[in-house]
Amino acid sequence: MDVRGLLLQQWASCLDEEDWFPPLEKVLENITLEQAIWKPVEGKMNSIWELVSHLLFYEKRLLMRFLGETENEPQAENNEATFRLPTATLQNWMETKQEYFNVHRELEKILAQSEHEDLYRQIPGERSLVLELKSLALHNAYHIGQIVFLSKMQGA
């Protein structure tokens, strides 16, 4: 298996293919708004929704930078700000999830269609696509574990 195939496998396992951990799409499938905003200890842990927003921030930023659309990339003054939520409504929760799924799948398409030289091309403000997607896949796996833990704490 080449590096693109390996990354495609890792990327898919983060969203919709079962591997060593459950894929995020399945984990979030039946998470209600109340479960998405719940925190076991006020201020000590992020909620499921905050974690999804954080993952979306970094994936969307990479996508926009790869596409050369830096004017559309999300902005945050620091890492903590990437966990911020819009108004807590069911509509906004559903939109956050869907946007995450769409951005993740768009990055997957880019990876699948990239030629060898595209994989290693420097992305403005980032490293190469290969290194960024590898890092994001590990980052996703870490936070998916937290999301699974939070959902289990709530009996989901």
TrEMBL record:
Highest taxon listed in the record's lineage: Bacteria
Pfam families listed in its UniProt record: DinB_2 (PF12867)
SUPFAM superfamilies, alphabetized: DinB/YfiT-like putative metalloenzymes (SSF109854)
Ranges of residues in domain DinB-like: 24-144
Name by which UniProt lists this protein: DinB-like domain-containing protein
